[in-house]
């Protein structure tokens, strides 16, 4: 029966959309891949020519002290980059190992008492129901301002303001702490705005709220940080500073982010100004250098055995395939997404660990083949890194047999949920662990 | 591998890209068709997305989930396209007849009903129900809280059910909203290529 014939209550969106998807897939044929790649490379060459031409024109204009007509440069453009590797078919094949024998998998570790985490801040502001609060907020283009009533975390109508209180982990984007030194806590919240009903992508920034003696909640210091297409995947307060991971929320968006870093802001009496966070990335800042040393521990240690590859110190460099290290016939690769919180305050002391996926594979398979089929993959999981004076030390590796970790969330209560999928199915399941002060346990 | 049968040498990077392209082109067109209500536009945009991917392949191939990148770019381009075309569509609607491919009437009706939703609801509905993304992932992709996505899905689902219910009412002779919709579009029999008449 078509859904056109069904009463309203029987409309099954999942079924209807699956049918649409299958019908469209069956009705289209992709143009030849060589044609498409050639078109992409032509576009790239045109853009480079235009850029070179504009720069040349600007130089000429400066030299002549006058405006000039743009002329195409005769400099041949650099060859189009035809970078990197490897999306392979989802077929499992056996390949000869290229590295040393795989060490035995580690024995399960004992469950330890889970330490008490620091309790929530003892301040009336921590009891505010932010999703249903009345807040006074500063002006910003495309946003409502003044005293606003929020219901379920958002204002009514457009322009609309939305408080980012729930990204799967309630409270992930809400932090408390004394930022002004007055002895009372402030609240830091990520907020975003939709300028009109057809606005599907919100631009976010931070707001800091203070609570006066009468209970009124008003923002101080204006909007904090850049107002851009970024996700504040983590917010916390430490040492009177706001710290936050600012990750681009749009692909290709020109906003630089390296896992392990955070932005920091400090109150100067009027506003919150950016200051160095001191949190360095786990990857090199450019493709000319190596990242900081990362100590995986001894060859027979837990992390190396869980990864299935030798331990020791490695330093990732940026290759065509992403961040990787080639050593002793195996390849170590870091995973990178734009949606996960890389920093996690596991001990609740304001000193974040770094969480990032890592895999180790035989040198004769690509990352994509290994991760999508398991072919040549020795191990993959979520690496837990602690900062050392010179770099990082691996303290744990969370793995799930025959599955790869593709995402995670860390709850401020100490629970980590990792999302894993079987190599070929794509079906995702959550697995939870709790931090016991030394490692994650089930 | 010689995906095009041309016999031309293809390096490992190109092979990897081509495999991704062949595997996901259809899904990306389906996503874009649902967002844009125009199969020709959807194919143009899908090719644009893959062009951008090839230009940035060095970075994208290192992502854990290159398909997520493709999807996000597709949604962004569709949203931009929608905004640019919206005003023009109002003027062109009465003057042009657009031929859409030979999809089943219920699929045509579904896409036409989607077109009546606000962009944010439509995007959330398509990502959740067509792409099968969990609500939390839709929220992450759109940069809004989970609660907001749930509200959009709820409103969007109700609106779709209502529109489809209305579309089913006229009885025999009614081909569906594609014939009667506000843009004057009509269903036709193009082979999935760009619309012949615009």
Please state the oligomeric state of the protein chains shown: heterodimer
What number is the mean pLDDT of chain B? 70
Tally of separate helices of chain A? 4
**What topology, given as strand order, has the largest sheet of chain B?**
1-2
Q: Order of SSEs of chain B, N→C?
A: HHHHEHHHHHE
Give the rounded overall mean pLDDT of chain A. Answer: 80
Q: Rg of chain B to the nearest angstrom?
A: 18 Å
How far apart, in Å, are the first and last alpha carbons of chain B? 38 Å
Largest interface summary:
A-B, 90 and 98 residues
- Give a count of the beta strands of chain B, DSSP E runs of length 2 or more: 2
Percent of sequence in beta strands of chain B: under 5%
Structural classification of chain A: alpha+beta
Structural class designation of chain B: mainly alpha
Could you characterize the architecture of this molecule?
The complex is a heterodimer of chains A (442) and B (198). Among the domains of chain A are: 124-275, no CATH class; 294-441, no CATH class. The longest helix of chain A has 32 residues, at 33-64. In chain A, a hairpin with a 4-residue loop joins strand 11 (263-267) and strand 12 (272-275). Chain A is of the alpha+beta class and 442 residues long. Chain A contains four helices and 25 strands. Chain A is globular, with a radius of gyration of 26 Å. In chain A, strands 13, 14, 15, 16, 17, 18, 19, 20 and 21 form a nine-stranded mixed sheet that branches. Chain A starts with 12 loop residues before the first helix and ends with a strand. A two-stranded parallel ribbon of chain B has the order 1-2. Chain B has one domain (12-190). In chain B, 66% of the residues lie in helices and 4% in strands. The longest helix of chain B has 27 residues, at 66-92. Chain B has 198 residues and is mostly helical. At the A-B interface, helix 1, helix 2 and helix 4 of A face helix 1, helix 2, helix 3, helix 4 and helix 5 of B.
């Amino acid at each position: 029966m078509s859904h056109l014939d069904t009463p309203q209550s029987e409309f099954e969106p999942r079924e209807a959309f699956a049918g649409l998807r299958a019908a469209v897939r069956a009705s289209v044929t992709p143009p030849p891949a060589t044609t498409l790649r050639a078109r992409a490379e032509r576009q790239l060459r045109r853009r480079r020519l235009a850029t070179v031409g504009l720069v040349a024109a600007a130089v000429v204009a400066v030299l002549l002290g006058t405006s000039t007509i743009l002329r195409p440069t005769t400099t041949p453009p650099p060859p189009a980059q035809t970078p990197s590797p490897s999306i392979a078919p989802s077929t499992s094949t056996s390949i000869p190992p290229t590295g040393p024998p795989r060490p035995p998998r580690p024995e399960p570790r004992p469950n330890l008492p889970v330490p008490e985490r620091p309790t929530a801040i003892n301040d009336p502001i921590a009891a505010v129901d932010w999703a249903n609060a009345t807040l006074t907020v500063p002006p910003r283009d495309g946003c409502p301002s003044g005293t606003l009533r929020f219901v379920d975390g958002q204002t009514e109508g457009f322009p609309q303001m939305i408080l980012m209180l729930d990204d799967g982990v309630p409270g992930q984007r809400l932090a408390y702490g004394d930022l002004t030194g007055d002895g009372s806590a402030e609240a830091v919240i990520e907020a975003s705005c939709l300028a009109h009903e057809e606005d599907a992508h919100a631009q976010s920034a931070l707001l800091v709220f203070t609570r006066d003696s009468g209970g009124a909640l008003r923002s101080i210091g204006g909007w904090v940080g850049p107002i851009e297409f970024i996700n504040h995947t983590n917010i916390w307060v430490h040492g009177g500073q706001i710290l936050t991971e600012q990750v681009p929320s749009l692909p290709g968006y020109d906003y630089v982010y390296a896992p392990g870093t955070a932005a920091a802001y400090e109150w100067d009496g009027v506003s919150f100004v950016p200051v160095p966070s001191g949190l360095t990335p786990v990857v090199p800042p450019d493709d000319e250098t190596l990242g900081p040393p990362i100590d995986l521990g001894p060859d027979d240690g837990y992390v190396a055995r869980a990864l299935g590859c030798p331990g020791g110190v490695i330093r990732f460099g940026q290759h065509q395939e992403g961040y990787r290290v080639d050593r002793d016939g195996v390849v170590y690769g870091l995973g990178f997404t734009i949606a996960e919180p890389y920093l996690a305050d596991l001990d609740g002391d304001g000193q974040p660990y770094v969480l990032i996926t890592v895999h180790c594979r035989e040198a004769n398979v690509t990352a994509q083949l290994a991760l999508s089929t398991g072919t040549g993959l020795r191990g993959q999981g979520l690496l837990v890194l602690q900062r050392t004076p010179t770099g990082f030390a691996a303290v744990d590796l969370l793995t799930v047999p025959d599955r790869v970790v593709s995402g995670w969330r860390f709850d401020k209560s100490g629970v980590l949920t990792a999302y894993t999928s079987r190599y070929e199915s794509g079906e995702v399941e959550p697995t939870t662990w709790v931090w016991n002060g030394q490692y994650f346990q089930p | 591998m010689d995906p095009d049968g041309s016999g031309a040498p293809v390096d490992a990077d190109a092979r990897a890209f081509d495999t991704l392209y062949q595997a996901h082109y259809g899904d990306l067109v389906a996503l874009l068709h649902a967002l844009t209500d125009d199969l020709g536009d959807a194919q143009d945009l899908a090719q644009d997305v893959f062009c951008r991917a090839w230009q940035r392949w060095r970075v994208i191939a290192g992502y854990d989930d290159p398909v997520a990148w493709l999807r996000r770019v597709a949604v962004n381009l569709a949203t931009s396209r929608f905004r640019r075309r919206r005003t023009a569509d109002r003027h062109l609607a009465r003057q042009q007849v657009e031929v859409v491919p030979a999809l089943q009437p219920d699929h045509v009706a579904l896409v036409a009903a989607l077109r009546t939703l606000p962009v944010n609801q439509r995007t959330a509905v398509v990502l959740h129900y067509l792409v099968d993304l969990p609500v939390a992932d839709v929220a992450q992709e759109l940069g809004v809280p989970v609660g907001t996505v749930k509200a959009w899905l709820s409103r969007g689902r109700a609106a779709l059910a209502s529109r489809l219910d209305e579309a089913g009412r006229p009885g025999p002779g009614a081909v569906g909203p594609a014939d009667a919709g506000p843009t004057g579009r009509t269903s036709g029999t193009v082979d999935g290529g760009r619309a012949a008449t615009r």
